[in-house]
Amino acid sequence: PVNGELIEVFVSEGVPVSEGDLIARIKSAQAVQILSSVTQAKFNLDTLALQKHNFPQEKELMQRELESIGRQIELLTVDYEREKSDGLKKISDSQKRQLEMTRLQLTEKEQALLQAKDLYGKYKRLHESPGGGGISKQQLIQKKTEFETAESGYKQTLAQMEDLELTFAAQNVTSSQKVEKLHMNILRAKLQYDQKKSQLIN
User: Fold this and answer.
1) Helix pair 93-128, 137-172: axis angle to 10 deg
2) Is 116 exposed, middle or buried, given 0-12, 13-18 or 19+ CB atoms closer than 10 A?
3) Helical spans, DSSP H, in the chain
4) Using CA atoms, how far apart are residues 95 and 107, in angstroms rounded to an integer?
5) 101 versus 166: which is more confidently predicted?
6) What DSSP designation does 20 have?
7) 24 has which bridge partners?
8) Average pLDDT estimate for 108-136
9) Rounded to an integer, what distance in angstroms lies between the CA atom of residue 184 and that of residue 175?
10) Whole-number Å distance between alpha carbons of 48 and 32
């Protein structure tokens, strides 16, 4: 039943009626709300049906866009590395030593990351095996934390290395703005790539 105010009656008392006949009109906010909900639900259903119909074409288009951005990143990276390499050939001895120390730290961080990743993988496989492989959930969490810490340390050192190379190269390249612009274009392209990839997956 729907609550509302009776506005108009179209049949007299005692007159036979059939199913579907309009016998009265009521003013009901509840009825309006129900009708609105039904209309919105139908619209949502039609939209989903259209999206399902168009999904293969949209997915193919997004895949092509993703590949195009990937090629753009590759070309930009080649230009950037060439410009940066030219600049790094002219850096001072102290700058060279600073880069070497950072490279050494990066190598150490990378080795620690690989070891932590391998160990976490072994613990995870054992924990997921029948009987848990003698590995408790707490032990698994600890190895995961160690892996994430090592990964974070590696990424931070890698970022430091890239910043140093960019800074030193830009100081010694005739067209320092060019190497900086290439670096920014690469970052923007990578961000766009990640966004498109996320849309494709979801």
Assistant:
1) 160
2) buried
3) 29-88, 93-128, 137-172, 176-201
4) 18
5) 101
6) T
7) 9
8) 92
9) 15
10) 24
- Dihedral angle, C-alpha 82, 85, 86, 91, nearest 10 °: 160
Task: Provide the token pair at 176.
Answer: 């320092």
Sole residue written with tokens 């950072």:
102
Residue 158 is encoded by which pair of tokens? 């890698």
pTM assigned to the model: 0.53
Residues in Cβ contact with 118 at an 8 Å cutoff, skipping those fewer than 6 apart: none
* The pLDDT of residue 152 is above 90: yes
Greatest Cα pair distance in the chain: 108
DSSP state of 132: G
d(C-alpha 180, C-alpha 164), whole Å:
12
- Higher pLDDT among residues 66 and 172, named by residue: 66
Q: How many CA atoms lie within 13 A of 103 on its CB side?
A: 7
Record the tokens describing residue 25, joined without a space.
């009109």
Per-residue model confidence as pLDDT tens digits over 30-83: 555 656 766 777 776 666 666 666 666 777 777 788 888 888 888 888 887 777
